[in-house]
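Why do we care about 3D structure at all? Because function follows from shape, and shape follows, mostly, from sequence. That is the central idea of this module. The next example makes it concrete: a single protein chain, its amino acid sequence, and then its structure expressed as tokens.
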Amino acid sequence: MNIRANARTVAVLGPTNTGKTHYAIERMLAHRTGVIGLPLRLLAREVYDRILALRGPDCVALVTGEERIVPDRTQYWVCTVEAMPIEIGADFVAVDEIQLCADPDRGHVFTDRLLHARGLHETLFMGSDTMRSAIAALVPGVQFQRRERLSQLTYSGSRKISRMPPRSAIVGFSVENVYAIAELIRRQKGGCAVVMGALSPRTRNAQVALYQNGDVDFLVATDAIGMGLNLDIKHVAFSATHKFDGHRMRPLNPDELAQIAGRAGRYQTSGSFGVTGEARPLADEVISAIENHEFLPVRKLQWRNGRLEFGTIARLIASLEHQTQNEWLTRARDADDLTALKTLVAQPETLDRLTSPRDVRLLWDVCRIPDFRGISAAEHAGLLARVFEFLQGSGRIAPDWLARNIQRIDRTDGDIDALSRRLAYIRTWTYITQRKGWVDDEKHWRAASRAVEDRLSDALHDRLTQRFVDRRTSVLMRRLKQKESLVADVNDKGEVTVEGELIGRLEGFRFRQDKTDSPDEAKTLRQASISALVPLFHLRADKFYNAPDTEFDFTEQGGLMWGDTAVGKLVKGDDPMRPQITAFVDDEAGHDVAEKVRRRLQHFMDRKIAALFEPLLNMSRDETLSGLARGVAFQLVEAMGVIPREQIAQDIKALDQDARGMLRKHGVRFGQYTVFLPLLLKPAPTRLRLVLKSLAEGLDEFPESPPAGLVTIPHLSEIPSAHYSMSGYRPAGARAIRIDMLERLADLLRGCDSRAGFEATPDMLSITGTTLEQFADMMQGLGYAAEKGERPKVKAEPVPSPVDSAADTAGVPAEEDTTASAPADSAAADADSSDAPAAADADTPAPEPKGAEKPEDQIELFYTFTWAPRPRRDARPARKPQQADARGDQRKGQGQKPKTGKPKGKKPENKPRDYSAGPRKSDRIDPDNPFAAALMGLKTKS
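And the structure:
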């Protein structure tokens, strides 16, 4: 190269962020023509775009191994160092990152440019100050410019990735390490961009755009970011301080760490660096060297002879292996191109083709095709041999062979690794099509290979974004960072969207965000979205407060529902009839929303209790009740309207007629087995009673109310008898019978001869809704003996149904004093025939179908029932018989049966035996009888 006498050579040296590359661009544009060589095609593309924006596309060329954009009137060439056209005689030449002269793999190329690349008017070498001595020794007349860093760089120690500040870059030295870190950041921070040297410029630019425009706040990269990429990075964290250099694992030198760490802090903004993950903290001397930019100078530059001889293959290899005597230079180890050359010439079929220096030069050009695929040397050599065969034979690569290889790669399916492999493969074919004269219709094939690379690049960017960026979270985080007001909306399905991004569902006043892969990711999403939900909570609370009671309900386990959504639960209060409310409201909604929800639910429950327990509450507020009547009323209120008679037998016995009448005005019925308010046996009050009683008693699991309409239900031994009483049923054998139906049954039994024995009537079976066998078991549970028998079946004559007559007399009181063998008070006086459900009749055994006469000797089963209060011997625990009081009251507890007998201390009267349903009545008139006054008057007259 002819160099003018007035041409100047300048070495602009200094740490990162000194503006060296920016200065070189300014100097090049000050000249008519210029060439700038850059270490990476990614950086070359970045500089090309900058110059393109300043001077337009007609005068700027981009030349890399895989890309060639050369307009007709090119003035400025932006290239990778290997692709620099140093023979064109440009006015200006610049080489960036000149310290790479010491790199074991590519150093010989940079050293060649240092020794031979010159501009006609100006030459710039930009890089680290460690190159000062070498440049001074190898470049005569060079001038030096020392540039200081524009911002301060400080060490911040070790940090977990979860505590990494925004606008950070985490550096890894393997693809696996980069992907693992990126996955972790996605879960913890919402996502990151990924930058690696193997990415195509299109993919890399798309990933960098995610970071630069704020979609994500984190960047995960290899050491490729150390080569001049200008990014808005505030902190650089090393996940490792060792790397595999292609031959061995080795620690990074302080100057290499500084080159990467220097990406933190741009222009006048200070930056920091540190370590993360499993990387050990940096040594003090390394930290000091990086912060003060003081490193050992480079003593040896990698060199390979540039004066190659192509006479024979042996002379070519000898020239490539030529040694140097310069003390600053050391022969580089065999590069990939030399290794491929030796592999090919070892093959006889290739060696036989080398018949002229032209063939040797052609083979050397073919061997310089980079192994982008990273496959074995033998496989790569096989591809090169095939290309050499085409070029030596016809002078062009066969179009159909080229098309098949490109078409095989042109697929955008698969994961990140598959797409990355295809991108590496297409780079090989892109490089081949860029070589002048190797293919027919160069324009077509360059465009075809470039189109495939673009499609693969876009697909890889999409896969990287899908895997390592939670767009939903990143968008929300960016809006929050920009302090914009986020707009939230919820549809009729409860789906919540913020700025159009679906983030979860609103269940009442609790936000249920979409499932994520980790708690950290969930926390990030919630943090990003909750501020937008606060106004939504207030609007929803207003709607909730104004909703009618018909939209609310309570569950059998004490939950409170708004439609199908749980919004709270009942908790025990000071008064069993007024439970307290716990509202299900997220803390982020605020105290006002939570209190509004709680108050509305309290109003609902208060009104629900007042409506369903109105008779009970009216009785509790009746000031005319006094004395023992008030005490009985208090116990009924405490039991919520249903109390076994044996629990208050003495109090009932002591009530006078007036007191009983006052209680009856409130709907109280004095049954043989239970004292209750019939209105509170309906399904809705029963369901509420179970919940309130369970709350008051502190049960962990509340008993469920029986299905509406059932007269009897199974009696399960594991369920406490108190639960049956709360449900409005009384256990009797294997089943439990509803207490109002039990009282109607007691009225029927009173008319039967319980000592001589009686059989069940259809009316009894109809009331209880049982079969004969079930009825027999139930009667035994009530204290009767059931004797089973057989007899010829006789067709019964039609008789009027007793059910009708029973219904007609259901409202007639029949309370009378009886001995211990029969009921003391009749429930027939209080039974409400309307309370008997139709299901009871449905459960009644079907009558015999009409048809042909049956044989008179056909056998039928029957039971004879007699009053026999003795313990049953069955699968149930034995029940101790107890002596009943004079009115036949049973002891407390399930399954206890009244027992006939004579009172202790009294001799039996010597009178004829009475075989009626109970012992002879005393002369005392039962005050509980509503006709007691009239009877008393008749007795007085007599």
